[in-house]
Write a structure and sequence with these properties.
By secondary structure, the chain is of the alpha/beta class. The protein has a single domain, classed as UDP-N-acetylmuramoyl-L-alanine:D-glutamate ligase, CATH 3.40.1190.20. Helices cover 40% and strands 23% of the residues. The protein has helices spanning 40-50, 63-75, 115-128, 149-159, 170-179, 188-195, 202-215, 254-267, 272-286, 297-313, and strands at 4-8, 12-19, 34-38, 56-61, 80-84, 90-97, 102-106, 134-138, 163-167, 181-184, 218-224, 230-233, 238-241. The strands form two sheets. It has a nine-stranded mixed beta sheet with strand order 5-4-1-8-9-10-11-12-13, sandwiched between helices. The radius of gyration is 19 Å and the shape is globular.
């Protein structure tokens, strides 16, 4: 199996709790909070660990919250490479109202990152990546980071002949995609921005996605569509993967779980179709767990079997 490295430049401590009824201007009594190490690449590494696959988790962290984040990752048994920064690692909050089963998610912007700290990340990547490795960059940029940061990461991956998987949004996604990626996982809204159109209907998706692949240095697109599953597009493949219907408890980390499932299968040499199906299974499994908890191995493989059975019965 090839080595997998994950990159998180704006990690977080994800704090989740429940409350019985949310109303304004009142003191709300929450349950005991649960603390989890979070942020795109960190979530990918956590799911890979659940799948018995090792990864090198590269991330930025600072302050007492950064120390806490490192301790949480150590507790999770994650192999980590922490790049210290001056700012404080952010904390996010997810509160579920058990009276309505609605979840409220509060995401903080993260610390300011200096140019020197950005260069430090690129140096670590240049030293850590080897030919044939998979590099997963997932999550938002921190304030102060240049919007072309992931494009710079892409150039390092290409120089090292590593396979770059990018999962972000906004201008960072656009510039990163233009520089090149082995695999992108946009949702429909993000794909619209990548293609410079206001919106994309399902009927238009195949033509627009294939035109994007023709004009951009990207080999694989997996368009996530939430409860509708995902669409796998390559130069020669177009496959819609239906997502199983499950009881959803939380959508926190579902996209990261999907990415983890995909890179897990890619590193094993599985086909693109198997990769996308397993990714949908992981993303769906993540919605079955409460708060900021991610997917469970048992759920993943049960859902993967269901997806395969459905796909094989509807060729």
């Amino acid at each position: 199996m090839k080595n997998i490295l994950t990159l998180t430049v704006n990690p977080a401590i994800d704090k989740s709790a429940t409350v019985n009824g949310i109303k304004p201007n009142s003191k709300l009594r929450c349950s005991e909070p649960i603390f989890e190490p979070g942020g795109g690449g960190i979530n990918v590494s956590k799911v890979l660990k659940e799948l018995d696959t090792n990864s090198e988790c590269i991330y930025l962290a600072g302050g007492h919250t950064g120390i806490f984040l490192t301790s949480l990752l150590t507790k999770n048994g994650i192999h980590q490479n922490c790049i210290p920064i001056k700012g404080y690692t952010r904390e996010n909050l997810a509160v579920t109202d058990i009276a309505t089963n609605q979840q409220f998610r509060f995401g903080m912007p993260g610390p300011q990152i200096s140019n020197e700290e950005c260069l430090g990340v690129l140096k670590v990547l240049n030293e850590s990546l080897n030919e044939g490795d998979f590099l997963v960059a997932s999550g938002s940029l921190s304030p102060g980071m240049p919007t072309d940061f992931y494009a710079q990461v892409s150039r390092i991956a290409k120089h090292k002949n590593a396979k770059f998987i990018l999962d972000t949004s906004g201008e960072a996604l656009i510039l990163g995609a233009q520089e090149g990626a082995y695999l992108l996982k946009p949702n429909l809204g993000e794909l619209s921005r990548l293609c410079g159109v206001e919106s994309i209907t399902f009927a238009e998706l195949e033509v627009i996605a294939k035109e994007f692949l023709r004009t951009n240095p990207c080999e694989v697109l997996v368009v996530s569509m939430g409860a509708q599953g995902a669409l796998l597009i390559t130069e020669s493949i177009m496959e819609h993967i239906n997502a199983p219907t499950v009881h959803q408890n939380s959508t926190v980390g579902a996209g990261d779980s999907m990415v983890a499932g995909m890179v897990h299968f890619l590193a094993q040499g599985k086909s693109f179709s198997e990769m996308a199906r397993f990714g949908v299974a992981c993303g769906t499994a993540a919605t079955m767990t409460p708060g900021s908890e991610l997917c469970h191995k048992k759920d993943i493989y049960e859902l993967y079997d269901w997806i395969n059975n459905q796909s094989n019965s509807n060729p």
